[in-house]
Amino acid sequence: MRISSTLCRLAGGAFAVSFLFESALAASIEQWKTRTVYQTMTDRFARTDGSITAPCNASAGLYCGGTWQGTIDKLDYIQDMGFDAVMISPIIENVAGRVSYGEAYHGYWPLDLYSLNSHFGSKQDLLDLSKEIHDRGMYLMMDTVINNMAYMTNYSNPATSIDYSVFTPFNNEDYFHPYCIITNWNNFTDAQLCQTGDNQTALPDLYTEHADVQDLLLNWTRDTMSEYSIDGLRIDAAKSVTPAFLRRYSDEIGAFMTGEVMQQEASIICDYQTNYMGSLPNYPIYYSMLAAFTQGNVSVLVDQVQTMKTSCPDVNALVSFSENHDVERFASFTDDISLAKNAVTWTLLFDGVPFIYQGQEQHFKGSGTPLNRAALWTSGYDNSSALVPVITTLNKIRKHAYRMDSSYVDTASYNIYEGSSEIAFTKGVEGRQVIMLLSNQGTSSTPYTLTLPATYNAGTNVTEVLSCKTYMVNEWDATLVVDMDSGLPRVFFPTALMSGSGICGYSAANLSYTQVKTGVTTSLGTKAQQLTGQAALGAFFLALMTLVF
Ligand SMILES: *[C@@H]1O[C@H](CO)[C@@H](O)[C@H](O)[C@H]1NC(C)=O
Ligand SMILES: *[C@@H]1O[C@H](CO)[C@@H](O)[C@H](O)[C@H]1NC(C)=O
Ligand SMILES: *[C@@H]1O[C@H](CO)[C@@H](O)[C@H](O)[C@H]1NC(C)=O
Ligand SMILES: *[C@@H]1O[C@H](CO)[C@@H](O)[C@H](O)[C@H]1NC(C)=O
Ligand SMILES: *[C@@H]1O[C@H](CO)[C@@H](O)[C@H](O)[C@H]1NC(C)=O
Ligand SMILES: *[C@@H]1O[C@H](CO)[C@@H](O)[C@H](O)[C@H]1NC(C)=O
Ligand SMILES: *[C@@H]1O[C@H](CO)[C@@H](O)[C@H](O)[C@H]1NC(C)=O
Ligand SMILES: *[C@@H]1O[C@H](CO)[C@@H](O)[C@H](O)[C@H]1NC(C)=O
Ligand SMILES: *[C@@H]1O[C@H](CO)[C@@H](O)[C@H](O)[C@H]1NC(C)=O
Questions:
Q1: 479-495 pLDDT, tens per residue?
Q2: Which of 290, 295, 297 is the best mutation target for the ligand 7 pocket, counting ligand atoms within 8 Å of the beta carbon and taking the most?
Q3: Out of 258, 259, 359, 456, which could bridge 238 as a Cys pair, Cβ 3.0 to 4.6 Å?
Q4: Domain ranges in the chain with CATH number 3.20.20.80
């Protein structure tokens, strides 16, 4: 990936020799748009001993033993589902000790930026994880805290009891805003200047308006991304970071980063995207998705899609998600597996970079924090259970649609049908579009047919990729009459373009649109794709030498 993007830049002529010597070739928004991301929380994902029985009491909030080495050993599980990027929880050293609700297992309580969290392993382990991820052609994203440090006051007054000298490199009160606790989260100034912590764990708020703080954070980020070959960042608590610094930070780091602003107003998210950072988790769509699939109101989602489209510069650069480590698991609202399948279909096929949070594929049920952080190993990493097969197929069709048309990830979804309990959206250019038909009726729904207008051209055969059933679009009125059952989602793609998708018995190969269209699947092009990373690197140096000498 990194090599081929370098080659692309070389081919495109937009290159300078100097970039060769930068070790960080992090990936851009455009590159991330083609990816789907699996979010892990290192302490809760996998252990070095591979145990699937080690106890982990999520409500106690203590370290449970997950490691970077454990993550390496379970990369097959992630990759077999079709993900091509992994986001890991924060890596740096956190405060030791415990408060009534636990320890820093999640990584959001920074103490020393220049050391790693030894609970998760050694520097070599993290380097190995990065290498293993990249050897698989996957991207590595790092969750990152730049808003605050952490200090356990354990009920003593945070205004007077924080010893700032313990922090690295921010070892002095001057690097922080004066103590105050956020009292009104709707007052953004308050959220930016005051602390997000409480009176057990204070989260001293970095003075991110100050150039010294900014420079230290920028240098640390550049060094860390370079050291561990990190391709992108999630910025924790971005709402609490001064916006002008977010702008500078994302401009100077350059790589894809998505900043957490937990707001359901499209106007706020779109304002941030316009002015401060290219990407944010799409919370407005998240809340509307819940309305559609857990509260029975599909029109809220249809309306929100339209609002986002007209207010945001680029919905496709936002992060599409239905669970993360901060929100209630979908299955805590409803246990219904068909509804969960509709939610993951929406998440993976709507506009944006899709993220699936560990455990979502196993239909974990934990309500809010910390219950949404149960150890994944208790599932036994069963790759036949719950949502795993559905997610695997959806990842394949998303990737295939992109191979059939590289503009797929930049096209906007639009609504083609709204019933009282069903919605359909199309995404992609005419003839190569993916159409999803979703329902909020749930598993108890009985069979019926639904007539979709405005799908593909009359007479087109289309494959419903989740059931492998083929339909023909009616020749006389161009409607698509779909068999509905058990509230299951339906996802369509033209049958004539299924080769190479790896779905429903079609071969899994990296075929181009022309190859699929003409049925010619052996060519120099396919051979070139088989170049190993090293061969590609060799070709690259050859090309470079030709240019230089
Ligand atoms: C889990 O931790 C909670 C909170 O500390 C405690 O109340 C509960 O008894 C623990 N459960 C088990 C099974 O140990
Ligand atoms: C499930 O995991 C096993 C190994 O545990 C692997 O052999 C198999 O290919 C996986 N199946 C799928 C569909 O990914
Ligand atoms: C906080 O107080 C509790 C109860 O006295 C104690 O167990 C714990 O170790 C203390 N934590 C810290 C960080 O001092
Ligand atoms: C918002 O918060 C800031 C900082 O705490 C405070 O100075 C300001 O008065 C607040 N504004 C409103 C409208 O409450
Ligand atoms: C700690 O915070 C809680 C809630 O914010 C508050 O009710 C309580 O009085 C505080 N305790 C101390 C010792 O400051
Ligand atoms: C950041 O790095 C630059 C370039 O290495 C260096 O000149 C500068 O002093 C560093 N700034 C801080 C605050 O460490
Ligand atoms: C769905 O929500 C919208 C907006 O809140 C509301 O106007 C509409 O009446 C709701 N529809 C149903 C069926 O509840
Ligand atoms: C679509 O499928 C039908 C029945 O399987 C077949 O007769 C027809 O030729 C197909 N149409 C196209 C355009 O491939
Ligand atoms: C698939 O083929 C395209 C076009 O030849 C190439 O750019 C891409 O790197 C290939 N992807 C993989 C995973 O081999």
A1: 999 999 999 999 999 99
A2: 297
A3: 259
A4: 33-381
Q: 191 CB less than 6 Å from ligand 4?
A: no
- How far, in Å, are 295, 336, 434, 496 from residue 500 at the CA level? 38, 33, 16, 11
CATH topology of domain 414-509: Immunoglobulin-like (2.60.40)
Report how far residue 485's alpha carbon sits from residue 439's, in angstroms, rounded to the nearest whole number.
Answer: 10
Atom of ligand 8 nearest to the CA of 461: 1
526: Cβ below 6 Å to ligand 9?
Answer: no
Question: Nearest C-alpha to atom 1 of ligand 2 is from which residue?
Answer: 383
pTM for the model stands at 0.91
In this predicted structure, which of 124-128, 319-323, 539-543 has the lowest mean pLDDT? 539-543
Closest residue to atom 10 of ligand 9, CA basis: 529
Say whether 260 is catalytic: yes
* Cis ω for the linkage preceding 169 (within 30 of 0): yes
Helices (H), 180-242: 188-193, 211-227
Assess whether 135 carries a catalytic annotation. no
CA of 461 to the centre of ligand 8 (A): 6
Site to substitute for ligand 6 among 22, 219, 225, most atoms within 8 A of C-beta = 219
Q: Report pLDDT digits (tens) over 248-286.
A: 999 999 999 999 999 999 999 999 999 999 999 999 999
What is the three-class DSSP state of 121?
Answer: coil
CB distance 57 to ligand 1 below 6 Å: yes
Could you tell me whether strands 469-472 and 480-484 are parallel, antiparallel, or unpaired per DSSP bridges? Answer: unpaired
Where are the CATH 2.60.40.1180 domain residues in the chain?
414-509
Which tokens go with 320?
Answer: 């599409």
Phi, psi for residue 97 in degrees, rounded to 5: 90, 180
